[in-house]
Amino acid sequence: MTLYTTMDSPLGELLLVGERSRTARGGTALASLSVPGQKGGVTVRDGWTGDAAAFAEITGQLRAYFDGTRTRFDLTYVPSGSAFQRQVWAAIETVPYGTTTTYGRIADRIGAPRTAVRSVGAAIAANPLLIVRPCHRVIGANGALTGYAGGLQRKQRLLLHEGAAQAAA
């Protein structure tokens, strides 16, 4: 059964989608976190069940992040993506709060050639878990803010929120 809820945030209304999981803190594994107008974003579908209580742990962690009292998320995710995407997503999850890295460094981190930077970018663009899987921390080699499915203004807001030096680029 697919569950969903929404929550207000400094980025606009967030749509959280997940499913019950015995191993997840709070009992819900997160499948998607999206923002309004997101490129490739999710919308509520027929048959989904609205259940704010099922997402209490997740929304609590997100509120703490936006309040500035949480710098890491401790969540269970619904498995998704190709093997390559999962490898890229695991690499971006290691980028610390308040820092940035480049697409090229992510390629290096997963052992892909520099020529794979576009493939890395495509995998990052397919990230279904904005904010909690911090793709906003990946920037262009020249320091430019590039490629964020939630929009570059939101990417900049997240980086400013985290105090990342590149946020004003």
From TrEMBL:
Cited InterPro entries: MethylDNA_cys_MeTrfase_DNA-bd, MethylDNA_cys_MeTrfase_DNAb, MethylG_MeTrfase_N, MGMT, MGMT_N_sf, WH-like_DNA-bd_sf
Domain Methylguanine DNA methyltransferase ribonuclease-like: 3-75
Alphabetical list of Gene3D superfamilies matching this protein: Methylated DNA-protein cysteine methyltransferase domain, Winged helix-like DNA-binding domain superfamily/Winged helix DNA-binding domain
Pfam families according to UniProt: DNA_binding_1, Methyltransf_1N
GO biological process entries: methylation
Residue intervals of the Methylated-DNA-[protein]-cysteine S-methyltransferase DNA binding domain: 83-164
Active-site residues (renumbered): C135
EC number: 2.1.1.63
Record's keyword annotation contains Ion transport: no
Keyword line: Cytoplasm, DNA damage, DNA repair, Methyltransferase, Transferase
Domain of life: Bacteria
GO molecular function: methylated-DNA-[protein]-cysteine S-methyltransferase activity
Compartment(s): Cytoplasm
CDD domains cross-referenced by the UniProt entry: ATase
Record has NADP as a keyword: no
Catalytic activity as recorded in UniProt: a 6-O-methyl-2'-deoxyguanosine in DNA + L-cysteinyl-[protein] = S-methyl-L-cysteinyl-[protein] + a 2'-deoxyguanosine in DNA; a 4-O-methyl-thymidine in DNA + L-cysteinyl-[protein] = a thymidine in DNA + S-methyl-L-cysteinyl-[protein]
Primary location class: cytoplasm
Function comment: Involved in the cellular defense against the biological effects of O6-methylguanine (O6-MeG) and O4-methylthymine (O4-MeT) in DNA. Repairs the methylated nucleobase in DNA by stoichiometrically transferring the methyl group to a cysteine residue in the enzyme. This is a suicide reaction: the enzyme is irreversibly inactivated.
Family: Belongs to the MGMT family.
Note: This enzyme catalyzes only one turnover and therefore is not strictly catalytic. According to one definition, an enzyme is a biocatalyst that acts repeatedly and over many reaction cycles.
Name of the molecule in the record: Methylated-DNA--protein-cysteine methyltransferase
